[in-house]
Amino acid sequence: MKFTIKKPLILASSSPRRKELLSLIGIPFDVVHSQVDENIALTADRYPEYVMGLAEKKARAVANKYRESIVIGADTIVVFDRKVYPKPATEEEAEQFLKEFSGKTHSVYTGVAIINDREKITFYNKTDVTFRDLDEELIRGYIASGDPMDKAGGYGIQTAGALFVDSITGDYQTVVGLPIAKLTEVLRKEGLIELKDGETILDN
Fold first, then answer.
1. β-strand partners of 76
2. Where does this polypeptide localize (predicted)?
3. Catalytic site positions
4. What percent of the residues of the chain are helix, what percent strand, and what percent coil, each to the nearest 5?
5. pTM over 0.85
């Protein structure tokens, strides 16, 4: 499959995982880190609004500088027992997170915002992840690798954190950080990308 896009596309994220997922569409894009304060108020249990709000904040910060581009922002949170789990600040906190998830099911929300000509489109996906019963040796070995420290909830499902997972209900890529199938669907529906035969091009 090949897609065409009529305007420059920017991913407002420095996440290598989101960059890799967006590359699956096969369209050219640039990466611009939004560099915004990610602290916004969370109204109790309104997790979809929270992640979509953060995604929009990131996208709009970049869109204000690149007004002729389509800008995509995304944000991911992990929720368990009505508590949001951010990126762990310390190894001790990462260990605490993983012990709390052990043998239980938590939810991962990823919100996406698309800014085009000052118009916004937002959506989110939710995936439930069930962990196996984890032993301390496995948890400490994973933490020693350094992998948990830049990931919401303290683990990466696409890396060695996959060893913790018993099952998922929902979209795997939502847990990675960008629900690419849903994003492609929305971009096509809005006429921002088109499926074409032949080469993928950026029209001038």
1. 110
2. Cytoplasm
3. 75
4. 35, 30, 35
5. yes
Hey, what are 98's tokens?
């993983």
Q: In which residue are the tokens 């001038």 written? A: 204
Strand partners, 5: 193, 202
In angstroms, rounded to a whole number, what is the distance separating the alpha carbons of residues 55 and 121? 10
Place of tokens 């949001």: 84
Run of H or E including 161: none
Question: Closest Cα to residue 124, out of 192, 178, 164, 160?
Answer: 178
Q: What is the DSSP letter of 130?
A: E
- Tell me the backbone φ, ψ of residue 182, rounded to 5 degrees: -65, -40
Q: Where are the domains of the chain?
A: 2-196
For residue 190, give the DSSP letter: T
The amino acid at 37: D
Let me know: does 115 contact 63? Beta carbons within 8 Å.
Answer: yes
Tokens of 34: 């939004």
- Residue 9 tokens read as 């596309």
From first to last of its 204 residues, the chain has per-residue pLDDT tens of 788 998 999 999 989 999 999 999 999 999 999 888 766 666 667 999 999 999 999 999 999 999 999 999 999 999 999 999 989 999 999 999 999 999 999 999 999 999 998 799 999 999 999 999 999 999 999 999 999 999 999 999 999 999 999 999 999 999 999 999 999 999 999 999 998 765 444 554
- Residue that is written with structure tokens 């018993």 in the block: 166
